[in-house]
Amino acid sequence: MNNPAYLKNALPGVLQLAPYQPGMPLEELQRRLGVKDAIKLASNENPLGASPAVCEMLAATARGELSRYPDGGGFRLKKKLAAYHGVDADCITLGNGSNDLLEFVSRVFLGPGRAALFSQYAFAVYSIATQAQNAEAIVVPALPRDHASMPMGHDLEGFARELRDDVAAVFIANPNNPTGTWLAPEQIEAFLEEVPEQVVVVLDEAYFDYQAPALRTDSRALLSRYPNLLVTRTFSKVYGLASLRVGYGLSHPSLADLLNRVRQPFNNNSLALLAAELALEDQDFVRKSVELNTRELARMTAEVHALGLKTLPSQANFLTIDFGRDASPIHQGLLERGVIVRPMGSYKMPDFIRVSIGTGEENSRFINTLKDILKMSSGA
Ligand SMILES: *Cc1c(COP(=O)(O)O)cnc(C)c1O
């Protein structure tokens, strides 16, 4: 079975796909090193866990819910999200993580002869969702590495220049992963003005809550003006529910209707739906998580700069460090010392490492370990 016959029938885009590389699981590294105190700062997860209300509910209800199908319409969660965002419930599409929304877009709008537009160094799922549909990916060069204010950020003027007739979808991450860079509201609005109405623009706001309020784009206000806009949000980051897989889209009802047609009817399980409802109500937990992140991101940035290293500007829950040379020995050194961070080779950024902002203790462990490694490699 080295070359099964059905391979030649697989869509060319799928054959050329490089699978998404998840971060190494903590247990795996602990097993390899034979230690119990390794830490994981590799997947932009919430170091505080999830709201205590969610954890209690899961323990209490798991037994009774397992045999029943979930509410396929996500009625209660949608109602709460609608109230939270001040939109009608029919503007909402629920996803199994916000990644699901990106796939809905590709399934509805992309295919052979169609193209999707996104930035170099953008979130990996945009190219996977595009290629899997056998559509063409137009990758817009990012701003240069030495750009004064937003190194390696999205270049929306470049996006506008690439809007060919066959472009059916545009993916914008704000803030972007893996760079942490963001766009000003005026830039986003100017771009939306240029986009033909038949092109769907996805504004991926997975890190919205971590952004300083003054830098945020009021995407909800844009929704009423641009029926071709889809805003995506997730419960995976600041709400701390990455394992349960809940994300959603906000859009004009007719766009939501199209996306819902390709959605699996039970794409969110019952416990995930309940957890998301409770998590949404616990805005205290969100505030606490954001405060920790804001404080620790500033401290980590200062400490990394004090080591003579550069960082990309970040408004997210991670920091992307520029080592100015191949960072894989650093990544390896961190791993050997029980610290998992994300190497950037698969993003074609081999000189960089992305470190998620953890608790104060985890971040100090990262900084001290990095110091040790740098000292050793400079022969001091
Ligand atoms: C983490 C992340 C997501 C969220 O993915 P989920 O499927 O909701 O867990 C979406 N977009 C970007 C840019 C991300 O970094």
Describe how the helices and strands are arranged.
Layout: H1 12-15, H2 26-33, E1 39-40, H3 52-65, H4 75-85, E2 92-95, H5 98-109, E3 115-119, H6 124-132, E4 136-140, H7 156-161, E5 167-173, H8 185-194, E6 200-204, H9 219-225, E7 229-234, E8 247-251, H10 253-261, H11 270-281, H12 283-306, E9 310-311, E10 318-322, H13 328-336, E11 339-340, E12 342-343, E13 352-356, H14 360-377
Parallel strand pairs: 1-11, 3-4, 3-5, 5-6, 6-7
Antiparallel strand pairs: 2-8, 7-8, 9-10, 10-13, 12-13
Helix pairs in contact: 3-11, 4-11, 5-6, 12-14
Pyridoxal-5'-phosphate (PLP) binds at residues 44, 97-99, 123, 173, 177, 204, 206, 234, 236-237, 242, 247.
Cofactor: pyridoxal 5'-phosphate
Keywords: Amino-acid biosynthesis, Aminotransferase, Histidine biosynthesis, Pyridoxal phosphate, Transferase
EC number: 2.6.1.9
Structural write-up:
By secondary structure, the protein is of the alpha/beta class. It has two domains: 22-49 and 284-378, Aspartate Aminotransferase, domain 1; 52-281, Aspartate Aminotransferase, domain 2 (3-Layer(aba) Sandwich), CATH 3.40.640. It contains 14 helices and 13 strands. The protein has helices at residues 12-15, 26-33, 52-65, 75-85, 98-109, 124-132, 156-161, 185-194, 219-225, 253-261, 270-281, 283-306, 328-336, 360-377; strands at 39-40, 92-95, 115-119, 136-140, 167-173, 200-204, 229-234, 247-251, 310-311, 318-322, 339-340, 342-343, 352-356. The strands form three sheets. The chain has a seven-stranded mixed sheet with strand order 2-8-7-6-5-3-4, sandwiched between helices. A four-stranded antiparallel sheet has the order 9-10-13-12, with helices on one face. It is globular and about 60 Å long. The N and C termini lie far apart (53 Å). Pyridoxal-5'-phosphate binds at residues 44, 97-99, 123, 173, 177, 204, 206, 234, 236-237, 242, 247. The site of pyridoxal-5'-phosphate (PLP) has 14 residues, from α5.
